[in-house]
Amino acid sequence: MGENQEDFVPWKGTIESKLRKLVRLFEMQQDLPQGIELNPYPRCYECKHPNYKICVKYYMGIKSSSNSPLVDNYEIDFTQIVKDFLNLLDNYPAIDKTPKLINIGFSCIPKQKVPQNVLETFKTPQ
Asked: By residue range, what is the domain housing residue 34?
């Protein structure tokens, strides 16, 4: 999320270059139950945000496989993974040059709330 294209483009590039590390943090999570599958999707989607002029979203699918003992309402706490990722970003030298008008956010949403245009692109190759 950002206020102007000039500052946002390098920020977005930095985040994109670190997304593999976020996936790795998920994969290294010791507390995840057996049978959890992580499906990152390396494509961004422009969206609207009430506090920023420019905003893009990345989606990552997390589901339980058929051999998982999880029930539908099982909750997984990703707080530590997000904190570790934000810490990684804070320690990245290029972040020090980032204006304060740039930000990052995380949210978990069920598949039913993922926009239809996003779900359609998951089915088709880039």
From this structure: 5-123
